[in-house]
Design a protein that fits this description.
Blueprint (H helix, E strand, L loop, with lengths): L14 E7 L14 H15 L17 E10 L7 E12 L3 E10 L5 E11 L12 H10 L5
Antiparallel strand pairs: 1-3, 2-5, 3-4, 4-5
């Protein structure tokens, strides 16, 4: 008998990025602390963009599209995470503007079938010198279009 590789979960839009909840992410009641959800979403987002060459390596002038700031974060908690283990963050773009974007996320089971929390986050690309909004690059926009959630 041979072991088969696990089948990767499929989502109809966006990407499902695995994340790990550790024992020390839990609060005194044994639940994933509410402040950890945005942190785990940020780590998934960073991993996704790093895979496309968008990263911050300590030099803001070379950061390009990684030079961005959060304008807004909204999150709703739907079910408690009660144990450490492997979960996933489902990421997608709801809007891709000239200098900003809105992405949606779900903190979910590793296979994407159960949602524990979901929300949106608005990012603005910044000019490193002025810290004013700046346009996303064409390369960033090309990847972003692949992440757009279908309308409807």
């Amino acid at each position: 008998m041979t072991a088969e590789a696990p089948i990767a979960p499929v989502v109809s839009y966006g990407r499902l990025v695995p994340v790990t909840v550790h024992f020390d992410d839990l609060d005194a009641l044994g639940l994933l602390h509410n402040a950890r959800y945005p942190l785990l979403v940020e780590r998934a987002w960073t991993e996704l963009w790093n895979a496309h060459g968008v990263r911050f390596d300590g030099d803001w002038h070379a950061a390009g599209d990684a030079c961005n700031a959060v304008r807004e974060l909204r999150i709703g908690y739907e079910a408690p995470v009660t144990s450490p283990g492997t979960y996933a963050v489902h990421l997608w773009l709801d809007r891709l503007g000239t200098t900003g974007l809105t992405y949606g996320f779900r903190f979910c089971s590793a296979d994407g079938t159960r949602t524990y929390a979901q929300g949106t986050r608005v990012l603005v690309r910044l000019d490193v010198t002025t810290l004013r909004p700046a346009p996303w690059t064409d390369a960033f926009r090309a990847v972003g279009r692949e992440l757009l959630r279908p309308a409807g």
